[in-house]
Amino acid sequence: MQQQKKIILLALITGVVLMVAKFGAYLITSSNFVLTDAAESIVNVLASSFAFYSIYLALQPRDRNHPYGHGKVEFFSVFVEGTLICIAGLGILIKSTYNIFYPHQIHDLLMGVYIIGVTGVINGGLGYYMIKRGKMLKSITIEADGRHLITDMVTAAGLVAGLLLIYFTKIDLLDSILSILVALYIFFVGYKLLRKSVSGLMDETDFELVQEILTILNDKRRVEWIDFHNFRAQKYGNELHIDCHMTLPNYFDLNKVHEEVSLVDQLISKAASVKTEFFIHADPCLPDCCHYCNIPNCPIRSEAKTSDITWTMENITRNKKHFEQ
């Protein structure tokens, strides 16, 4: 988490410097097109500030009121960032539409090209770095901030091309038209961030992570693990919490059951790319489980094994043993 705080702090300081540069470019050019980038830079600074606080809060240990920790604040951070981006896009859209009907003079476009170009390169480099580090650290806050900066880079590239087009064609109306197109793109990016944050706050399954867990379980499965079902996953910050039912031989005593449950937890904690906590409810096997049970010389087997069942997203998420599906 300390690494995350340093990365967000770097993004915050960089954002403040670039925001000043972009508003300087707007004052020089009076271009709505440049204003789109300058307005979004305010979002960068506000979002990075809130992200810095959310990282700090996520560091706090579990307590009575937050038994799963404070990691979900990262989803709220992404929600705030997405909302701010949508507001910025809407504001730019309104102003640019207004200036189509009430145009104003723009000037010194080449200076604006130089300033926006440099800020775009800086944002692009920082954005790629933050996405890479965010994935490594399993932090959606850092990754979301990085993707926002990549959006800034793309916007800057469009700005440079658009300003050069306006400069060479001398068609000032293009300034407002291109600004509207950029505003729509910014609004779309904000929507995607909102969608991602809401899915996390609503405990939507992260299928990519769950599939990784399933691959490990299938590769390392023990014969004692007859099946998994009622499998549910929730992500809190950079931690994955899973609760499920696990079918074990009904003649196991409590110590043996505890041993097998612990082995699952240790296996995933060691092999998975994300910190995972398991809550496992142990179910006793039934005679109908025998046809897919791998235990050799089972003392209570009622029929021979006749099939192998691979654990998939479909069969583990149902609240049924596999023979009932």
Sum up the structure in keywords.
325 residues, mainly alpha, Alpha-lytic protease prodomain-like, Alpha-Beta Plaits, 2 domains, 3-stranded mixed beta sheet, 9 helices, 3 strands, elongated
In short:
By secondary structure, the protein is mostly helical. It folds into 2 domains: 200 residues, Alpha-lytic protease prodomain-like (Up-down Bundle), CATH 1.20.1510; 118 residues, Alpha-Beta Plaits, CATH 3.30.70. 64% of the residues lie in helices and 9% in strands.
What general form does the structure show?
Answer: elongated
Named CATH architecture of the largest domain: Up-down Bundle
Structural class: mainly alpha
How much of the residues is beta strand, in percent?
5-15%
Q: How many beta-strand segments?
A: 3
Mean pLDDT over the residues:
84
Low-confidence stretches: none
Radius of gyration based on Cα positions: 27 Å
* CATH class category name of the largest domain: Mainly Alpha
Q: Count of helical segments? A: 9
What helical percentage do the residues reach? 55-70%
Number of domains: 2
Describe this structure in words.
This protein is mainly α. It folds into two domains: 2-201, Alpha-lytic protease prodomain-like; 207-324, 2-Layer Sandwich (Alpha-Beta Plaits). It has helices at residues 2-29, 32-58, 73-101, 109-137, 140-169, 173-201, 207-220, 254-271, 313-317, and strands at 227-236, 239-248, 275-284. The chain has a three-stranded mixed beta sheet with strand order 1-2-3. Helix 3 packs parallel to helix 5 (140-169), helix 4 (109-137) packs antiparallel against helix 5 (140-169) and helix 5 runs antiparallel to helix 6. The longest helix has 30 residues, at 140-169. The radius of gyration is 27 Å and the shape is elongated. The model has no long low-confidence stretch (mean pLDDT 84).
